[in-house]
Every structure is written in C-alpha cells, then in structure tokens.
Amino acid sequence: MDKYKVRVTKDYLTFCSAHFICFEGTKCECLHGHNYRVAAEIEAPLNQDFLVFDFIVLKRILRDITDELDHRMMVPLKSRTLGVEHDEQSVRIRFAEKEWVFPREDCVLLPVENTTAELLARWIANRLREELTSYSKEAPVKVAAPEVLRVEVEETPGQSAVYETVG
C-alpha cells in the first residue's frame, strides 16, 4: 500500500518565547528564552486532487499557531510544582521563595505540565489537529483526517523534540 506524507518547515514558522522549566520536583531554571522553530508532517491518503494536504493552507495554520506563542511568556497551567494565579491584568507564578509577576497580555497560558519542547510539540500538534478538523469541514475538496501527525519543536539548532499522534 502506498503512503504519502507532507512536511513543512519554514523560516517564518518560528516563535521567540520566554519560559523556565521545573524538574526533579525541587529545581527551577532561571527565566530565559529561545527562538523556537516548528516543523509539521502529515500522513494521509491522497484526496481527489492527489494531495495529502494543501501546503499553503498548512503553512498558514501553523503560522497562526506559532504567532499565538510569539513574544510571550509561556506559563504551564498544569504544573505540579508552580503556583499560578491569573486575572485580566496579571499572571503571578510562584516556586518556593521565587515569585514572578507578568502583565497578562505578555503571557500565553498553556494547558501543559511544563514548558518543555516535548510538551510544546504536543500542544502545537493538538492545536494543529483542531484547525485541520475545522478546515476539512469547510474545504472545497474533501480532505482526509491525518493518519499520523508529527510536530517537531526545535529549541536551538540541533536540539529538538518530536511529538507523534496516530489516528
């Protein structure tokens, strides 16, 4: 059986964001940032136009998702080690004796346990799947749901994480 994949990675599929990671239950990195780069790959049958998915549409959807993260402080709402409180004006984060307060508009609140590249790849993949599903309902040409969806998040050149979801 034939298999087809499309993959996109472009210079503009990037986001520059601040974060810190908590690990081992007792450690917390200093606040820092990365210039992240994103790539996505879809495996699916060809549609009636002999495409897996339109590259132009896929790039637009991914760019919209990366724009949500760009120039923001990424805050993990499901962290077991951070105390996170937020309202319309501010986001307050606590870890042991440390405390940070950010303007709400400068933060993106993510439903993840930690802002690792692995979990960012999963979050982006889930957002991408939502957008692909929405698009396919309105697409002029029938688009198959991805059989496999892979998202790669590169923190720095040569250092990346990949999340893959099947079905």
Task: Describe what is shown at a glance.
The protein has 167 residues and is an alpha+beta fold. It has a single domain (5-76, 113-166), classed as Tetrahydropterin Synthase, Chain A (2-Layer Sandwich). 22% of the residues lie in helices and 44% in strands.
What this model shows, in words?
This protein is elongated. The protein has 167 residues and is of the alpha+beta class. Helix 1 packs across helix 2. Strand 6 (83-86) and strand 7 form a beta hairpin. It has two helices and eleven strands, in the order E-E-E-E-H-E-E-E-E-E-H-E-E. The strands form three sheets. It has a six-stranded mixed β-sheet. A three-stranded antiparallel β-sheet has the order 6-7-8, with no helix packed on it. The protein has helices spanning 55-69, 117-138, and strands spanning 5-19, 22-23, 27-28, 32-43, 72-76, 83-86, 90-95, 98-103, 107-110, 148-156, 159-166. The protein has one domain: 6-pyruvoyl tetrahydropterin synthase/QueD (Tetrahydropterin Synthase, Chain A). Helix content is 22%, strand content 44%. The mean pLDDT is 94. It starts with a strand and ends with a strand.
